[in-house]
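Blackboard transcription, Thursday session:
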Amino acid sequence: MKQIIFLIFLLAAFGFFGYTIHRLYSFLSKTKPLDGKVDNIGARIAHTLRVAFGQSKILRKWQIVAGAMHATIFWGFLVITVGTGEMILDGVLGTERVLGFLGPVYDVITISGEVFAALIVLAVFGFLARRYIKKPKRFIAPEMKPSSNMDATIVLIMTFLLMVSLLEMNLGYLLVTPADEVVGMYPITGALAGSFSGLGEGAQHLIFESGWWIHIVLVLLFLNLLPYSKHFHVMASIPNVFLMNMGPKGKLSNMQSVTNEIKMMMDPNAAAEMGELPPPSRFGIKDVEDASWKTVLDSYTCTECGRCTASCPANITGKKLSPRKLFKDVRHRMTEKGPGLAKATTEKPYDDGKSLFDYITPEELWACTSCGACVQECPVEIQHIPLIVDMRRYLVMEESKAPEALLSMFNNIENNGCPWPMPASSRFDWANHIEMPANLVSR
Amino acid sequence: MSETTNSPEMIQVQVPTMMDMAAKGESPEILFWVGCAGSFDDRYQAVTKAFIKILEHVGIKYAVLGPEESCTGDPAKRAGNEFLFQMQATQNIMILNGYEIKKIVTACPHCFNTLKNEYPELGGNFEVIHHATYLQELIDSGKLKVAEEGVIKGKSVTFHDSCYLGRHNDIYEAPRSVIESLKKEIREMKRSRSRGLCCGAGGAQMFKDAEKGNKEVNIERTEEALETGAEVIATGCPFCMTMMTDGVKHFQKEESVKVYDIAELIASARGLL
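(Written on the board underneath:)
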């Protein structure tokens, strides 16, 4: 009976999760391909091990407390997920502690699971205290609405309940299982079990069964809530780090459509060779579907920690630009437009009369110095600059809109090969008078 | 010419251009890419000259494009004008490839980044070196011998990381090593290396007014540089040079705090200026 109820519940949870992921995939499938390829797998794995699994961009000495708390939760979840897998197997097969045959390995899993569960409980309190008492500066910004805070609090509370139910389940297991049949080792609940040995058999079974059910129901609930909150981060971060652009950091993408156009302009023969190329639908990014799927995945990965915004020189000096806000905007815009986009076809495109520019203003885009501090600080390797530059590309190349001074700069480069209004003929004038001591010249 | 008996004999440096060199059927070991700031900006022309004197001093066979050089297109690209960028790049690559250039040294991190990272896809494949790295190589190999002399003598120094040298290209140690060769310990700012704060000029900001805010980025950064108590702010970028110099003027410290490029520190220490 327990098996049947569990199976129905599991299928419903996985079914809904599958639906959610399929839905997100259908949104992403309407976006643009990556600039570059997902190659160099070895280097990607090494990078993912360091940044995602090693938490290298979280464990920084100037914010070591928050970093250590985050790493505790992350590493704990990795270990505990093994136990969750076992619970699902047990639930389906009607077994108990099916991985118990692993012996010493199972001991390691169960010991570290308990220790991490306890540490995670502490970390949850630490994070709640940070959020509500310390209130770090980077959590306070115009784009940080009460809902962002609530989102975080709900996930923290769920995490807390997950850990408490896990410990409760272990405690119940020790109470209902004869000592010589216990598999695994439980340092924390083992120490507590003695105090509960006086309870009746029914109560002991209730502790075990309720712990087991509460935990697994929360896990499956968690699985289905995450994709609808900023905490989709939990699932998207590792793939997002793995899929990042591994090319030179200072390199902006080359627009092949522009290269083709210039080639044809300069060499009519090349035009014949290339044949009829389909014109690009649009230069740059006007709306979410013009962005690469990676930019949209970036927006799903962002958990709004604000390290980018806290390091942004424009933001620090009071400009409207906040790198974090840009990715919240992309996500919100995709949530708004995605369902329509997913159904659209080439014959019947979808247009709701809005664009990403209803969320992100040119003023924000023109405040960026492309310094890369946001990218450097982002623990999940979100790449902010391509989004900003691609939106600038749309403004400049499609709408001929840019601050007046930049339009002059373009003119100067076009006419004189220099961003300042200086005649090209005087470019080499600096060399007219260079004097140095003769005895220090070697040639 | 003034006639002072004690000063050493001075000579005029004839900067070799690729055009002249190619006409003689010769090719240089390095091409010095001067850049727009190095060519036209009054202050940065001094850096260009300092670097030329270092090249003359070590006796390397070098050349410049001179009148044939043109903007790399970096500010256009970062301001979203990809078409203009690629027009510039295509034209520059044609000239560089025409001269069969293999190795380029530049004193501008923006030119450096574009030439190194963005030209290959358009057919321009060169070994591109920033002058910080090049100076470090000259010093490490013993070709350039320096001591604590010149403008830096007796002064404390801090180094401002340029974003396009540091964060974008991971060059943090070369400029520091150049400064340390002058027996100087760098007074680091609170935000340095990968956490360095931008001067405010990158991404084409150099050519426009800042967006509305409550402070200029260069003021924020200069404040931090002044907090170190350093009397010399060393940079390796023409835009940073402008922004930091303006910042120092804003605090009316131009008498006591000077902004120099690392090439100037070296040229001055070697008695070349």
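Lecturer's comment: The longest helix of chain B spans residues 42-58.
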